[in-house]
Amino acid sequence: MASLPPLLPKVDAILVLDGDGNRLAGKYYGDFMKAVPASAAATSENGDSGDNAAAAQSVEQLRASFERQLQSKIGGIAARPDAAEVVTVLGKTAVFVGGSPASQGGGGAGDVRVVHVGPSGESELVLAHLVEGMYEALSQLMGGATDRNMILDNLELVFLLIDEHCDGGVILETDGSKLASSVLLRDEQEGRMDGAPEGQAGGMPGQPPAGSMGMGGMGGGGDMTIAQALMQARNQIISNLQAS
Predict the structure, then answer these.
(1) Helix (H) or strand (E) holding 82
(2) How far apart are CA 69 and CA 185, in angstroms?
(3) H or E segment at 203?
(4) What distance in Å separates the CA atoms of residue 230 and residue 221, rounded to the nearest whole number?
(5) Spatial CB neighbours of 98, under 8 Å, sequence gap ≥ 6
(6) CA distances from 205 to 106, 129, 151, 202 (A)
(7) In whole angstroms, what is the distance from residue 57 CA to residue 159 CA?
(8) How much is the average pLDDT of 79-104?
(9) What confidence category does residue 191 fall into, taking pLDDT thresholds of 50, 70 and 90?
(10) CA distances to 5, 26, 89, 130 from 8, in Å
(11) For residue 80, what is the DSSP state?
(12) pLDDT score at 228
């Protein structure tokens, strides 16, 4: 009798939310949050682009409603990177890491929350392990600054991280360091494929970002900016990977 393949953990959605519950990045998988009202589904079959747009809007409204309900349960709660919190929303298990406590304001400018939404049968411990690994990788990629502005300035890396972490709802990698290395290597490769000059390939998206993070200051000052430090760390990781 042939042995069964090992069971791979699966998720229904991966979300990166700011302190107010706004989705900064994320993906929904399978049929989760894709059901539209019967009237919208019926009209979309006519093939009219306006009807199709209405159906797509209905799906987005459905997801926004789910995220509002999720935020009502996790808002103001800060979960340590190594101690994910668990809530239940619409019968789904949602496990999250990050966020700022209500005592510190907990608004949109605070630390983001990484959320994994799992099917009803998935273990909470497994989901916690998954979300903690992705958050560790996110923190490494962002240089330890997981606030809303840093995420928005580097959305390309965040979406690459989601893709390296999960494919079609099936988890591919959970180790934070390996995930971060894979993202940086893939970013470098895609930068070279786009024809970027050597030394600039795969640069941090959105440079020079605005704001008070000091990432855009490439002047003659002696201090290394966050962007330069991240670039140096990335190049070092890539060099180590190529040497091994």
Answers:
(1) none
(2) 37
(3) none
(4) 17
(5) 78, 79, 81, 111, 112, 113, 114, 135, 146
(6) 26, 28, 10, 8
(7) 22
(8) 88
(9) confident
(10) 9, 20, 23, 12
(11) -
(12) 54
Q: Could you identify the residue written with the tokens 């510190």?
A: 104
The token duo for 200 is 């600039």
74 touches 113 (CB < 8 A): yes
Residue 24: CB atoms within 10 Å: 16
In a 3-state reduction of DSSP, which class is residue 26?
strand
Residue 72: per-residue pLDDT: 94
Q: 177 phi and psi, to 5 degrees?
A: -65, -40
DSSP letter (8 states) at residue 57: H
- For 186, the token pair is 């893939």
- In angstroms, the CA 79 to CA 186 distance is 29
Average pLDDT over residues 86-100: 93
Angle among Cα 206, 212, 217 to the nearest 5 degrees reads: 65
Mean pLDDT of 90-118: 82
The structure's pTM equals: 0.69
Report, as an integer, the average pLDDT of 215-219. 37
